[in-house]
Amino acid sequence: MSQKKGLEGIVVADSRISSIIGSQLTYCGYEIDDLAENALFEEVVYLLWNDRLPNQQELKEFSDKLFELMNLDERIYDHFKNYPIESVHPMTALRTALSFTAHFDANAENTSDAAQKEKALRIQAQLPALVASFARVRNNQEVIKPKKGLSYAANFLYMLNGETPTDVQEEAMNKVLVLQADHELNASTFTARVCVATESDIYSGITAAIGALKGPLHGGANEQVMNMLKEVGSLDQVDAYIQKKIDNKEKIMGIGHRVYKEGDPRAKYLKHMSKKLTEENGEGELFEISKRIAEIVEKEKGLLPNVDFYSATVYHSLGISSDLFTPIFAMSRASGWTAHILEQYADNRLIRPRAEYVGATGRKYEAIENR
Ligand SMILES: CC(=O)SCCNC(=O)CCNC(=O)[C@H](O)C(C)(C)COP(=O)(O)OP(=O)(O)OC[C@H]1O[C@@H](n2cnc3c(N)ncnc32)[C@H](O)[C@@H]1OP(=O)(O)O
Ligand SMILES: O=C([O-])CC(=O)C(=O)O
To answer: Pfam families this protein is in (predicted)?
Structure first.
């Protein structure tokens, strides 16, 4: 296949934010394993935006500011009530809602460095509140405001469920957020960079990125993985189900990657977490089904699980509805999107590739009655 289809392997930017070499992923020079084991998601966001980890005082100020901005304008909570709620996918809702939040930001069009950073912070803070409040409004539940003193991960679960999460739940959510925060020039990040390279605003860049993440070949795969597991139903059905998909040349969701050919380094954490959490919930069979799917696809096609494969059962074990999986991915990836947008602004040039014309030539306009 020609490289130009899908821009495979084509380097189009210099970036200091994340790097993929073989199966090694780093954020600003820190290995993903180190950060997944030790870091709070807020620290990772700070790292991606400032190219260094915060000290204690900086982290406190940063977390306080995030908390402050998490409280949405009442009109934003209210606007969800005007959605034809039963039919709106949460990613569609998020795409609209994030765009709507720009209406409440007096600095939306301000292009100073300070204003751009402030907007990044505002977006990062508002996303969990948007996802959680949409989920509650569609279920006819009261919206829950963030609680002071909780981490970003815990506050999201609190706003979603109305209960402070257990340590195990908070740790799992934090880890998933850290693991998905950035990933070089994936499709949604590239989308964000293309958008703001026209000197458009950061809200437009993030709205465009949410749209790109939604697709099942990208972030939308996590929801499809859960649908597949439900469809398979039980361990004894896996082999026949997957063989049929392979025979029909259908893609198996959560498997394969454009860059990683020897395995996605994030998947091993998520696999481990999936095993632990599903067993604790008495749903160990879901993990066993996932593991068997991965074994068959590796044997038959030589393809390995990506970040979306085991994250599905991790989210499911946290009691999260499957159509919220991709919005949660967006909450995490917003940190990378905004980091890349700020990097693009700092050294911008319009992104405008070429296409090779392969269509008809030499046609002449013909009057409509003669066609
Ligand atoms: C956060 C993320 O975005 S991670 C990716 C999430 N997406 C998914 O999980 C969706 C399923 N996976 C896929 O569709 C692909 O592997 C992608 C989109 C991730 C990568 O795609 P590309 O690099 O473009 O690979 P491409 O789609 O060209 O596949 C190459 C070959 O492997 C096959 N293949 C790739 N992924 C899969 C899969 N999941 N199941 C079955 N076959 C697959 C293709 O059918 C193709 O086979 P062929 O050469 O016989 O036609
Ligand atoms: O990099 C990619 O193409 C997809 C991916 O894994 C991500 O966005 O995390």
So the answer is: Citrate_synt (PF00285)
- Catalytic (active site) residue 105: no
Q: From 370, 342, 296, 354, select the one nearest 113 (Cα to Cα).
A: 342
What's the CA-to-centroid distance between 104 and ligand 2, angstroms? 31
Over residues 65-121, the pLDDT tens digits come to: 999 999 999 999 999 988 886 789 999 999 999 999 999 999 999 999 999 999 999
Q: Which residues pair with 31 in a beta bridge?
A: 26
Measure 217 CA to ligand 2 centroid, in angstroms.
10
Whose C-alpha lies nearest to ligand 2, atom 8? 186
Contact in structure between 264 and 23 (CB atoms under 8 Å)? yes
Q: Rounded distance, CA 296 to CA 68, Å? A: 48
* pLDDT computed for residue 4 by the predictor: 80
**Structural domains in the chain?**
15-167+181-217+322-346 (1.10.580.10), 221-317 (1.10.230.10)
